[in-house]
Design brief:
This protein is of the alpha/beta class. The chain has a single domain (9-249), classed as NAD(P)-binding Rossmann-like Domain (Rossmann fold, 3-Layer(aba) Sandwich). It has eight helices and seven strands. The protein has helices at residues 21-31, 43-50, 65-79, 94-98, 106-127, 154-173, 199-209, 218-229, and strands spanning 9-13, 35-40, 56-59, 84-87, 135-141, 178-185, 240-243. A seven-stranded parallel sheet has the order 3-2-1-4-5-6-7, sandwiched between helices. The protein is globular, with a radius of gyration of 17 Å. The model has no long low-confidence stretch (mean pLDDT 93).
Length: 252
């Protein structure tokens, strides 16, 4: 076991099961000595979260300010301080991913931005009070924020808002010694990814076109996250870093 995150309390929000993107981050953090705190969204996801085992686990409906307040109160009571927060939360209505973007409903647009982007603002506001020793906040985004990926639709808009939020939060929280960054991850097979139309074609394209000629893995993301969560990135904030086998540099 390493010691990059020894005795660090890391809150990971958005782990649904062992196939979640965030699970790779949890595994890497554990190997480096972190104390992991996991949240799950609802009773429907409780079983999957508890099966991960060995961590503090709390329920938190990310769309409820009261739930968020209750979560951070409970964490403060048990831990007193946190050193890192991983925000791996996003959601859009199925119909808004299956239809063309132009047919996105007003409710669907608001829902996607609330859950996928505003939630980072909401949890960061509470987390800063528990990051009395400074800390690191990271969120997960995708290149659909920068370029059109048919089928990603309103999630691309939500991720663009998320990345802009990273920069503004980095400005606000920097004086407190809190860094805010984003990992723009390449596509990975997850439960959520199944909702994106033609997702398999995206995976195939990355494997053929990316400089490394492969898709990324949970392990790739987990190891990269250690840089952001540890003191190795002490001078880095407000950035969006691509971990996608280099696919983002390609023009054709």
């Amino acid at each position: 076991m390493g010691s990059l995150l020894a005795n660090k309390n890391i809150l990971v929000m958005g782990v649904r099961n062992k196939w979640s993107i965030a699970w790779g981050i949890v595994e890497s953090a554990l190997k480096e000595g972190a104390n992991i705190i996991i949240t799950y969204q609802s009773e429907r996801e409780k079983k999957g979260a508890l099966e991960l085992g060995g961590h503090s686990t709390f329920q938190c409906d990310i769309s409820s300010d009261q739930d968020i307040d209750n979560l951070f109160h409970a964490i403060k009571e048990k831990y007193g301080v946190i050193h890192g927060l991983v925000h791996s939360i996003a959601h859009a209505n199925t119909e808004d991913l299956q239809n063309d973007f132009i047919y996105t409903s007003r409710e669907g647009f608001s829902h996607a931005l609330d859950v996928s982007a505003y939630s980072l603002v909401a949890v960061s506001r509470r987390a800063k009070d528990l990051m009395s020793e400074g800390g690191s906040i990271i969120t997960l985004t995708y290149m659909g924020s920068e370029k059109v990926f048919p089928g990603y639709n309103v999630m691309g808009v939500a991720k663009a808002a998320l990345e802009a939020s990273v920069r503004y939060l980095a400005h606000d929280l920097g004086p407190l010694g809190i860094r805010v960054n984003a990992i723009s991850a390449g596509p990975i097979k997850t439960l959520s990814a199944k909702g994106v139309k033609d997702f398999g074609n995206i995976l195939d394209t990355v494997e053929v076109k990316s400089p490394l000629r492969r898709n990324i893995t949970q392990d790739d993301l987990g190891k990269s996250s250690l840089y952001f969560l540890s003191d190795l990135s002490s001078g880095l904030t407000g950035e969006v870093i691509h971990i996608d086998s280099g696919f983002h540099i390609m023009g054709i």
